[in-house]
What does this fold into?
Amino acid sequence: MVNGTSHRSLISAALLLLTFILAVFLVVYILMYSFFLFGLLSYVLIVAVILSGFAAYFFWASRTVRTHKLLLGLILLVIVALAIYGTWFVLTPNWVFGLATDKSSYSLGKEVQITVTLENRGFIPHSITSPTANPVVVAVYALYEDPTLSTQVWYSPYVLNETTFSVSPGQALVRTFVWNQTNFVNPGLWNTTYKVGTYRVEAFIPESSDLTGSKLFSAMVYLNVTAT
It folds into this structure.
């Protein structure tokens, strides 16, 4: 009976150790990849809970009082940690902000179709509050020989009016814009087609009415404008 008790205690300890390793994996993965492969993390969490349950079963099958106390403390610690993490895992927003143009190269004067998405990959609805009526602002910059130097040539119209937007799980807030390759930032070039070259398109959701300040989300892509 003693050998059987010792055997069950070792199994319980091994299961708890494996559960602890899975918990460490969850934490490290989240810190490094910010919830990428969200479904994988869910499966790892489920496995960790199941393993802790088996550990509890083998614990109760053991008859050593000292082992009971030690394993009971470890099991309760793991279960509480998993419960806290699971609650945080479900309630924490998981946003994916994306920016895309319909092509990567355009002839001079052709319209550029711009699509911006804010996807909720979490488990419950989440909201954002933007200082603008349309949450997304898009700007286009012309790049010269030195890519670190740029000149803004276009931005999407916006109205400063604080607005809250709610997105359901698995859904996305989508905004589309069209840049017709005109420069209306510089009054001297108003509605004048700009020149060929490389341009940077930036999309962002501002955090405050100071649009040049910090941003809730931001993304950028590059495109080329050619003579033909």
Notes: The chain has a mean pLDDT of 77. The longest strand covers residues 215-226. Helices lie at 2-33, 38-61, 65-91.
